Task: inverse folding
């Protein structure tokens, strides 16, 4: 895989100033009011969890579930790393919201033509080579922007340099196949409300393993059903004809299916 | 007779009320948006319109493909008389699913998007295509009833030629569709309670839909025979009951095997809401109907079979609600449908009943169809129609 952009969020450094969510609101032209939870007008928030401040936002999975479940392909995992959303395609089935392992996508419930809303990792800015609005705004370097592989290496370096200060896990390195938003925490991630039962396997293969069987299923079952129909109904027709003529009377094997139906159905006598 | 007219009038008034309330709710839903008129939220994005209208609606329509397969592919002629009501149920069921989706989708005017924007990795795309294609097949399967009513003997014959192809297509599409509704939830291993989450969801959905297909045909045959004071064909109902019992036992084996295989059997015996719902679902959907059918006295009694079928139907509805709503409530949050959601659902169900009643009254739905070669007698057959049918008779008699 090509090198991708990512965010590293170090919870030990976060001071909870909320500059990231403010900058996000400005960059995405959202109403400026500070919000406590993610919403259709808040793509990232800073939440107080005990003694710590934790950002919530789209994790931009390496193999994103939303991209895989959207029937019309409204979501896209861009080459740079961000997972983007094309509202013009969206039909509003909200499967992405049900399926997302982090329950991130939000819906414009009050709109008559609602769209799904979530962080898109400032994909336009990233494409131009700039960093995301949130990482640019962070005064404490709690959120840093960079190449995913370098950020992972940096995260492990921080843990090894200060093993007492960090919980020994880079959350997002492997979760559900890896994400482009990485977290470092001073305590167990479960204590901060992170889902810790996700496993390291990406979710899209769960449905793809079923879906990829469909073409074979259709062909095989079609042939089996057609064959069964032919065998069973052919026997019935032959029996009927035998019954009529009062003797065993082998049929001409070359009759086509449609002729036979037609005869059996309408003009056999 | 008087009692019946009274009852019918009562139901007519109820129907008008349900329709009126449903239309007000429908207007509110589109004018005020989903947030103000549903119990849905960012935490619970799918509610009753998905869990009941779509998930249960599709499953309850399964009689269409199971019976057409039994009769046309496996040549089990004893079920012939109920193929058409089953196909009619499926047709109406799928129309209602499509209409229900128009209320549920955030941007229903783009419902055609999956035709052009296709993501082959999405189960939802499969679902969308199955609805579209199977609805078309069902229309073709049911349209001969109209041709017969109109006395278009030629058109009936033409349709008959295509029957095996339609039936096979229908069976394929419904198998895919029934199972795909289960596949939808393969993607939420961390959200759905282990009593329901399984890699075998597609198979479980398929088998449960198949068994409830028989149950639905029993229920609707019984209700129609009462409403139209028509003699019910007991052997068919009993045979349908047997088929239902066999498929339910098969389902029970699959579910048991699945729970044991995943090591999730223990969840059944915990004192949780989920375990309670699970037992209610199994009790209504499998244990009660199987026991009822297993008792010979009840099996040969239409009313007993009606209750067996009804129980299986309720159990299935609970199963679909458990998978799509309650089984995820612990992880996602609580949800209760709003009055708008309830009354729009009620309106759709009432419309389904009304359309079914209209069709049974005015079209050759019950009784052997001309496909078997016998003249169909509909309850509303009047002298004028008898005359019309008489014109058709030569063509039909020859079919025998």
Result:
């Amino acid at each position: 895989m090509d090198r991708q952009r990512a965010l590293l969020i170090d919870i030990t450094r976060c001071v909870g100033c909320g500059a990231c969510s403010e900058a996000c609101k400005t960059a995405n032209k959202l109403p400026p009011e500070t919000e406590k939870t993610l919403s259709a007008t808040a793509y990232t928030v800073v939440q107080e969890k005990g003694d710590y401040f934790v950002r919530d936002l789209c994790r931009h999975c390496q193999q994103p579930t939303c991209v895989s479940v959207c029937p019309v392909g409204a979501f896209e995992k861009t080459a740079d790393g961000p997972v983007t959303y094309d509202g013009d395609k969206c039909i509003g089935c909200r499967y992405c919201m049900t399926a997302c392992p982090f329950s991130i996508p939000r819906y414009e419930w009050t709109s008559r033509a609602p769209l799904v809303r979530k962080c898109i990792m400032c994909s336009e800015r990233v494409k131009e080579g700039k960093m995301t609005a949130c990482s640019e705004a962070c005064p404490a370097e709690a959120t840093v922007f960079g190449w995913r592989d370098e950020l992972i290496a940096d995260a492990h370096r921080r843990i090894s340099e200060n093993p007492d200060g960090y919980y020994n896990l880079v959350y997002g390195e492997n979760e559900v196949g890896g994400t482009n938003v990485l977290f470092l925490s001073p305590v167990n991630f479960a204590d901060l409300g992170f889902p810790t039962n996700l496993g390291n396997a990406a979710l899209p293969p769960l449905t793809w393993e079923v879906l990829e069987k469909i073409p074979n299923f259709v062909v095989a079952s079609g042939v089996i059903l057609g064959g069964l129909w032919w065998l069973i109904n052919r026997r019935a027709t032959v029996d009927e004809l035998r019954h009529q003529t009062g003797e065993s009377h082998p049929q001409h094997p070359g009759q086509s299916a449609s002729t036979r139906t037609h005869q059996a159905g309408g003009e056999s006598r | 007779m008087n009692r019946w007219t009274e009852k019918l009038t009562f139901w007519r008034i109820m129907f008008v009320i349900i329709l009126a309330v449903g239309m007000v709710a429908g207007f509110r839903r589109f004018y005020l948006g989903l947030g103000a008129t549903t119990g849905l939220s960012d935490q619970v994005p799918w509610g009753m319109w998905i869990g009941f209208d779509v998930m249960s609606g599709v499953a309850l329509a399964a009689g269409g493909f199971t019976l057409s397969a039994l009769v046309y592919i496996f040549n089990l002629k004893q079920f012939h008389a109920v193929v058409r009501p089953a196909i009619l149920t499926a047709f109406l069921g799928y129309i209602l699913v499509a209409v229900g989706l128009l209320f549920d989708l955030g941007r229903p005017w783009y419902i055609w998007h999956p035709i052009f924007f296709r993501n082959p990795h999405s189960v939802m795309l499969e679902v969308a295509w199955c609805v579209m294609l199977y609805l078309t097949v069902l229309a073709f399967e049911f349209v001969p009833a109209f041709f017969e009513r109109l006395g278009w003997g030629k058109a009936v014959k033409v349709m008959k030629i295509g029957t095996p192809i339609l039936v096979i297509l229908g069976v394929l599409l419904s198998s895919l569709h029934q199972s795909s509704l289960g596949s939808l939830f393969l993607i939420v291993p961390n959200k759905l309670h282990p009593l329901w989450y399984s890699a075998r969801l597609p198979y479980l959905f398929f088998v449960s839909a198949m068994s409830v297909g028989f149950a639905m045909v029993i229920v609707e045959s019984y209700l129609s025979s009462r409403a139209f004071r028509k003699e019910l064909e007991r052997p068919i109902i009993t045979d349908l009951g047997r088929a239902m019992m066999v498929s339910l036992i098969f389902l029970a084996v699959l579910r048991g095997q699945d729970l044991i295989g995943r090591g999730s059997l223990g969840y059944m015996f915990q004192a949780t809401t989920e375990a309670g719902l699970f037992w209610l679902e199994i009790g209504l959907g499998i244990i009660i109907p199987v026991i009822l059918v297993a008792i010979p006295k009840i099996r040969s009694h239409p009313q007993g079979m009606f209750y067996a079928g009804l129980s299986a139907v309720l159990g299935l509805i609970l199963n679909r609600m458990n998978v799509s709503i309650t089984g995820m409530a612990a992880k996602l949050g609580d949800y209760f449908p709003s009055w708008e959601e309830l009354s729009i659902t009620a309106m759709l169900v009432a419309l389904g009943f009304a359309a079914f009643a209209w069709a049974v009254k005015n079209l050759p739905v019950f009784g052997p169809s001309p496909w078997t070669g016998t003249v169909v007698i509909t309850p509303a057959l009047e002298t004028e129609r008898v005359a019309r049918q008489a014109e058709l008779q030569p063509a039909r008699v020859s079919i025998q």
In short: Chain B touches chain A through 65 residues (CB under 8 Å). Chain B has 15 helices and no strands.
